[in-house]
Each structure stands twice: as structure tokens, then as C-alpha cells.
Amino acid sequence: MIPAAGRGVRLGPGAPKALRGLGGTPMLIHAIRAMAASRAVSLVVVVAPPDGAPEVKHLLDEHALPERTDYLVVPGGETRQESVRLGIEALPEDVAVVLVHDAARPLVPVDTVDAVAAAVRDGAPAVVPALPLADTVKEVEPAATPGEPEPVLATPVRARLRAVQTPQGFDRETLERAHAEVAVDGEGDAGMVERLGRPVVVVPGHEEAFKVTRPLDLVLAEAVLARRRANDGF
Ligand code: CTP
Ligand code: MG
Predict the structure, then answer these.
(1) pTM for the full predicted model
(2) Whole-angstrom distance between the N-terminal and C-terminal Cα of the chain?
(3) Which residue puts its alpha carbon closest to atom 25 of ligand 1?
(4) pLDDT in tens, 193-222
(5) Does ligand 1 come within 6 angstroms of the Cβ of 3?
(6) Distance CA 59, CA 200 (A)
(7) Best substitution site from 17, 19, 89, 165 to test ligand 1's pocket, by max atoms within 8 Å of Cβ?
(8) Which fold has domain 2-129+163-232?
(9) What are the structural domain ranges in the chain?
(10) How far is the CA of 180 from the centre of ligand 2 (A)?
(11) What 3-state DSSP class applies to 47?
């Protein structure tokens, strides 16, 4: 499942983030191709902007996608959590494993997708790809006025921290229960599974699975694409 219903406020004004171009192709199409490239993926459910399902269906028809994969487009909601829930409701009954992948991570390598799917198939109810942090993280008392100095409360040991990415993989029943029983505002899918008391495991993520969030991320994404195209030429 690919939640793609966000506006992309932090990226600045323009089309919904998932529909913006990267190397001349919408970010969403890159994300769909990355997921469909995995043998573990037989169906891609795209959660489109609330009023953008017809446009997304049209995009899927326009771009070449692997034919052994099925595609489904459903309208999303106001929050990512609601969008994922709407995606879950659209899943055919025979689907037992669900990978939830941000359209905003268009360049995830297929090996990462495969690794997450494999860990779920091997029995983990919830799997998140993640990387160690480059920066040290401080917990602070947030300032009432932005820009004011903020007192440091604690410094978590960096070696124990991980920055999580997508696709995140779930046993379907676990993901459904998480959304039905412990859907807390702002909580991600894996966080809700933790609240359910079920184990969540981390597998290695990949630096190219970074999220396109701010304008500088687009510069990085274009550079990664250019590097791939240059390497493919050899
Ligand atoms: N998403 C979604 N439905 C929403 C909000 C977000 O499907 N109502 C999706 C986005 O399309 C994106 C993923 O969740 O693929 C991660 O969200 P984020 O990177 O925060 O994207 P946006 O919410 O679009 O960006 P911003 O927060 O800057 O507005
Ligand atoms: Mg957002």
C-alpha cells in the first residue's frame, strides 16, 4: 500500500507532493515502480489525494508498470493514519501481508522492500527498516517562542537510536487490529502495533530510502537519480 494523499506543505506550494516530478516522472510512479519491482508484491494499493483518485488512475495508465502486479486506487483522508485505514479497507480478503510505503520515499531500493517482506513472512508481526543516526539527538523543553534557547532535558545514547523509514511490513491482522483498537492521533502504524503489545523489529534501511520532505530533499533525489542513470550507462 502506498499512502500518497498528503499535500506536501513542507515542500512548498504546488501540486500534491506525490504528483510532483522527479527526473520528469511523478514521485508516486517512482514509488510504485520500486514496490512493484519486488517479487513479494502482487498488488499495489495507491491511496490518492481525497479528490485526486481519477487523476492518479490516469497517471497509472500513462506510465509503464510491471504487468504481473495488480493496481488499485482509493481516495485518502485528512491524516496519514486515516489514509492508511482507507487503504486497509480496500484490501482484498486473500491479502495476508501488507507493506505500507510512503509515496514520499520514491527511491527505496528493491532489496529493502524484499528484506522487509521476508522478515514478515519469517514470522515478525511488524517490521520497520531503519538506519543509525548521524546526528546526536537532544530532548529539550520546547521554547514557547520559536528561536528562543531551549533547555536540554536528556541526551539519549545515540547507538541505541534508529531513524525509521518505509516500507514497513505487517501481518495484516496485526495492522488491522492496531488501527481498530489503538489508533492514537499522530501515531504511526508501527507505534500503534507497539501499543497493542506486539513485537516490532527493525531491519537495516537504506540511505536512498530517505523521505522527500523539504526542497533540499528534491535536490538530493535528483542527484541520486542522475547517479543511477549514469551507472546504468556502464
Ligand atoms: N499521507 C497520506 N495522507 C495524508 C497525509 C500524508 O497518505 N493525509 C502520505 C503522504 O502522501 C506521504 C506519507 O504519507 O507519502 C508521508 O507523509 P509526509 O512525508 O508528511 O507527506 P505530506 O503529509 O504530504 O507532507 P507535509 O507533512 O509536509 O504536508
Ligand atoms: Mg505530513
Answers:
(1) 0.97
(2) 33
(3) 8
(4) 999 999 999 999 999 999 999 999 999 999
(5) yes
(6) 35
(7) 17
(8) Spore Coat Polysaccharide Biosynthesis Protein SpsA; Chain A (3.90.550)
(9) 2-129+163-232
(10) 21
(11) strand
